Amino acid sequence: MHPVFHQTDQLKGRRMAKNPSEAQQYGNLVPTARLSDGKPRTILFNATKCIGCRHCVQACKDWNDHDRTSLYSLSSTNWITMEPPVLEGLSPLWARNSCMHCEFAACAAVCPVEAITKYEEGPVVINQEVCIGCEYCIHACPWEVITKNDITQKASKCTMCSDRISEDKQPFCVQACPTEALDFGLTVEMSEKARTQAKAVGGYTYGEKEAGGGNVIYVLKENKETYGLRNISEQKFPKHKIPLGLMLKDLFTPRCGIKGKLRALYLAIIHPKRLIYRYFS
Amino acid sequence: MNLFPAQRTSPLPGGYVGKILRVDLTTGSMRDENLPEEPILKKFIGGQSLALYILLKELPLDATPLGPESRIVIMTGPITGNGFTPGGTKVTAVFLSPLTGSTLGRGATSGYWGTYLKAAGYDGMILTGVAPEPVYLYINQGKAELRDAAKFWGLGTRATEDRLREAVGKQDAKIMCIGPAGENLNRAAMLANDYNHFAAHSGGAVFGSKKLKGIVVTGTCRPSVFNKAALVDAGWRWRTTLQQHDVKKKKTKYGHGESWGALNNFNWRSTDLSPAHIQGFDQNDVVLRPCFQCARMCPWDATIGEGAHKGTLLHFNAGGEWLDAFFNLGIKGNAALYLAERINDVGIECSHFSCGAGVAFEAWEKGLLGPDRTNGLRLEWGNIEAADKLLDMAARREGWLGNLLADGPRQLAEALGGDAPNWAVHTKGGTPAMHEWRPMLGQMLRELVASGGMKPQGGGSTKPPPDLRYKETWGPLEADKPDGWAWSHVLSEQYRQFTGIFGGCWFAQMNQKPDGLNSILDSFNAITGWKFTMDDALAAGHRSMILQSIFGTQRGWIADLDWKDVGPRFLEPIPDGKYKGFTIAKWLPDMIYEYYRLSGRHERTGRPFKETLDQLGIEEFTPWSHEASQL
Q1: Which residue in chain A is spatially nearest to B140 when comparing CA positions?
Q2: Which of B83, B219, B244 sits opposite A59 (nearest CB)?
Q3: N or C: which end of chain B has fewer CB within 10 A?
Q4: Fold for domain A10-222+231-240+252-280?
């Protein structure tokens, strides 16, 4: 059974990684776990092959049983956008906008209830049953790809199809791509492939270093600005700004529930470094 | 039993959203109908078959195609919009054909519109009456409203799509609309959707007669799926059968006719295929623009890269009839592509225009037509400007010639008089899909027995699909011998039909590959929860074929018209090239007789035998059986 979707209490069931990642050397800021063999995987998005058909966007909805909400903005039922927000085919360049599955996942580091796990195989996943809807992750994410579900009041984003990865299958968006613009495999192989592909078109890779790098890499034929992509520093666990008002509201109002506050308090005591990163980064 | 129950007593199968929207354009009233109960759904399923069953129940026998009592029924199928399969895109409109006045008109289309009709909360719709003023229908998340379309009336399909999307304020709303050809009742006006897609064959004329400019759909609804895991598996199997289109072919190929080496030239008087036909294609910028979740990737956009029309953006689908349409007027290279974009914008089905204009150009060549009746145009072969202007004339019924081109090649040829009727290509007043089919017996039979001016399905294959070899062991058939082609066509019509009524696209049906049909059937079963066997699926396709001929029978069509009411040029021996001298005519009407007999219908009347109706569980149509006509 999939550990994220079938565990009622992630804290109890979490297995610690056998090979502490570099991220953990920062002081175990991020909860980690293993899905299968512990080998990191990467989604490779080759923008030079993308035709903007948005099959990946719809496939994500299909796999995750999301409504056919607008494909043009990220939401709790739309975890990928293909930019620019124009009809399929009507742009010469297309860029993917979704979770980059950071190695140094700021979202996971700021989560006061440790609802977000970085899996060794790559995915950064929000456990819906643990999330209390505090919105810290939404503000901490350098890519701004986390949204809140209006109904459940929980944070939501791409899971990299961690349920499929745990069964040794590729993410559904990758499977759906008709032009092989999306690829998936072991990180060592995908990194090499990305560099080769970028070299072949005289282009660039993107996502390997930004925010310390992650498990999604792009191949671009123009510079990132031409694609409208963000200019993100290479800092690991980047600085973030959680609005003070939000922090005070979460601390001193009934928001997020008593249970959530108690869990946050308990975790703050046992993981003080996370507390420091969350409030003082 | 009421066809649309006030409250359903049977569970709604997976794949359906459960509602049909009924719109009375005369009064502006709209109401939701529940989908028929499960036993009826299981028989007619969706698409052409369910839509036609509804039309048969509702269309008065004395209705005229473009009169106020005419109606149009639009249906998706359970596969439409599921997302896990390729080809889950099909939506079909049925109506009384304005081209023949007696047979079924059908326009089927893909793209996104069908998916989003379901997302808006409807499996289909029934449109009746005539709006007092031009309107468009806006359906957003289960709420439908008619809105004033005065400011969009007169626009081409491209501008209409853009402007309607802008008007409803949703960037990703999906539009089906008509251009000036539909508004002016050109008998072969098309419905255009999602830029690259056309429900061709006269639905646009019916929309125009109802003063309906378009239908905008948007919403978030997703039909339920009975067994998602099984569907993911079957959908992937289906996808692995697909033969994908690629950019290179669009830059180097002559279109569909290249596969057998014959194109239409000079009003079907030459089958020449030469590099000049595609000169400049290699300089175009081509982008594939696939339908909703379909990796076959038929549709494509191009920007012309050279010549007089450099920079023009074009939107096409596979098939390429629109290319042959202009080759047929002696126009080649990127000018043909430019004119293809123009014809899609004004919204005329290309073979209707081309077969009509072909007669006009030939009449000019032979001195039967002069500038007095062409609004001054010189109809010389290859005259791009004349063809361009003629498109507008045909779309708007301008002048003597424009008006007759809007009616069709037969009407134009008769009005020209002299020998002109012999130059026309038509079948029962409609026109065949625009390719040089004459060297191929299966395809010719398909064109002749089709409803007339509606894109036929089937055409047969030299060997049965691998998935049907459990019971079909014939072949390979010989291209120049009639033996076996009738049954091959009957069979192919059945599997093309069942794919369509399931809501699948027959362009994504790779029937000649192993698992090409089984994967579609398994997808259908996984979606609906039904347990159709391949024989059940073929019977569903057969039922749809029979309903089609019952519809024609009720309105005066007989099977004899399939070979008697044909434009002579279509049956002439091929004039040149490697197929010179070949014609299906020497085996007519025998091949047509055989086709009707093998499909359980009488060879002269085309009426189904009572036994056929009983076998297919549609005994209710016994009054229209062949036996009933003998009483």
Answers
A1: A69
A2: B83
A3: C
A4: Alpha-Beta Plaits (3.30.70)
